[in-house]
Amino acid sequence: MAGGGIAQSGGKQYPGLIFGYDLGVSGGVTSMDVFLKEFFPKVYLQSSASVSTNQYCKFDSEILTLFTSSLYVAALVSCLVASKITRSFGRKRTMTFGGILFLIGSLFNALATSLWMLIVGRLFLGFGIGFSNQSVPIYLSETAPSKKRGLLNMLFQLAITVGILVAGLANYAFDSWFKGNLPWRLSLGGAAVPAVLIIVGSVFLPDTPNSLIERGEHEEAKAQLLKLRGIDNVDEEFNDLVAASDAAKLVKHPWSTLLSRKYRPQLVFAICIPALQQLTGMNVITFYAPVLFKTVGFGSSASLASAVITNLVNFLATFVAMYVVDRKGRRTLFLEGGFQMFLTQVAVGIFMAVKFGVSGNPGEISKGIAGTLVAIICIYVAGFAWSWGPLGWLVPSEIFPLEVRSAAQAINVSVNMIFTFVIAQIFTAMLCHLKFGLFFFFSFFLVVMSIFIYKFLPETKGVPIEEMGRVWEQHPYWSKFVVQDEGIAMGKAAQNV
Asked: For the domain 10-491, what is the CATH code?
């Protein structure tokens, strides 16, 4: 891979940075007493009640969770529109528009004087996420060479973890340094910084060779491919891309084509991987780590500090995935991470059962017990960060042929946002009603998803994106659905006759 390709990849990560920031900032803000007192006074009274109250239900409020989850409803709607824009106008323009929406949303939140302004701001941020999550993983998969595709695609996930970490640091720092409304305004308004970087960066970012060919700009596409690969001759790869584009143009209705039998395996994974990614329970930690730590007896500042620790682990563990993914493959990371998360979810569930019981009254919590809980959650976060976190974006973006790629990515992001919204919206209610059983709930799905990966996911490391069809042809189960070359299939049938 030429140095130019790697250097350019840095400019593609700002959408991931702001996505991570938005994921991480809301949980910290909703644990700030001054924020709760102004916008959610009922929750503030519940959360500040004496320790004798049921800790499981302190933050049970549908309006409070709507502040977090409204972002994902907007992302769901916008990614469906973004599919058409990504295909018709290119990947980079989709990113630019997403950056503009991010900027509007961050300004609404920073200047909010009422709940409706907070919700509107989150909706604009969600629209931006829909556009960027539609375009960026496709961009990375299309520009990366097959041997480095996993590594470079994971830069998007790395940027998400950086955003989450920055959000945690910002929440902790602003809450410590400033008083009154300034901490939460600075935290929410901080999203404007990466938003501006997205807008400026995407202006100078070239589009992908696939997208340029798709829109008839062949000479520019070849020049861009030469620059990305850093070699003198890319004729073979360029001709493959042109052939794939010509085949894609024959598909007039990619949404209905996607439902055809030969795309059944990829469609299953485009739906199941993002759904199961959310059922790992990781977004509960991402959204509500400060709230969760505060629930188990940490003070406001201590809960924010503990969230920073888990965010740092999330960031560092992503480097493990980047190192391993193109060496050991996708399946190895999926299975190891799933096993690690299962063990730690069970451990957290047992901890909550022993310490809180059914009543939710923990009494006093020692520093040793609190530290043990943080350590267990850090091990869990590390497992997610080098498995289902980055692979949840990588695998769906690399398995589809060009003719249905944009539509398929829209489905992938849509399913992700649906489940993210549901988990974000009902988490505090589930914690209140299921109590410690919530963690066993997620443990069950970790078993299900690991079995699913083991039985049905073929290894895709090192496979050129334009040749991905062969991995399904060679799979013992999916081969019955996929016929890559109908002429060959008909010939074999004739011979059998």
From this structure: 1.20.1250.20
